[in-house]
Amino acid sequence: MTNSLRALRADRGWSQAYLAEQLQVSRQSVNALETGKYDPSLPLAFRIARLFQLPIETIFQDDL
Amino acid sequence: MLFCSTGANAAKRRYLQGSAGVALSYIGFVFVARIMIDRWHPHGMYLFLVAALPTLPILCFAFFVGRYLREEQDEYQRDAVIRGMLWGTAAVLCSTVFAGFLRSYGWQGSLPPFTEFMLFWVVAGIAKVAHNLANRAPDHD
User: Fold this and answer.
1) Does B139 touch chain A (CB under 8 A)?
2) Buried b (16+ CB within 10 A) or exposed e, B4-17
3) Model confidence over A11-53: pLDDT tens digits?
4) Which of B64, B55, B67 minimizes the C-alpha distance to B26?
5) Which chain B residue shows the shortest CA-CA distance from A34?
6) What pTM does this model have?
7) Strands (E), B54-141
8) Handedness of CA B22, B27, B30, B35 (dihedral sign)
């Protein structure tokens, strides 16, 4: 799974620390998500989508 | 014990406090069990009871880990802790299988009674540190 989290975050001028705080996760977690080292669970993906006010499939794309 | 990052949340703090208590009581129970065996040479049911003493902190540890996994909101950190413990468990299994195999074929020696628990912690800790280093977030994002 790929994601456009880093680009979306940059668009809004948010830091990783700010995004981590909003999602109530560590900055290491945000970094792992952005670099594709970790795929979020469905609840976390929904939280991210709600925060960016975008549909999940706009943020996360299936590799297929 | 498995957390090397700063700024531990409430779940981590509770887990660390619980783990520290477990580690101390484990050392204490091992020490007490050793003294009891050396002085009174219990056998039969009494030996079983004395030998079960050091397992009590391990049961408490399982409880603290379960509570941490339930309370930790950061699923990535939770995943990292579980991976660390998986490596620790693998190390313990390997050591017991290895020692058991040697004993089956004539080895007369034995590992000290606290080896497995210490091995678990050392390997799980190393795995967590390695994970943190490999997945370090850059200072500037």
Assistant:
1) no
2) eeeeebebbeebbe
3) 999 999 999 999 999 999 999 999 999 999 999 999 999 999 9
4) B55
5) B137
6) 0.79
7) none
8) negative
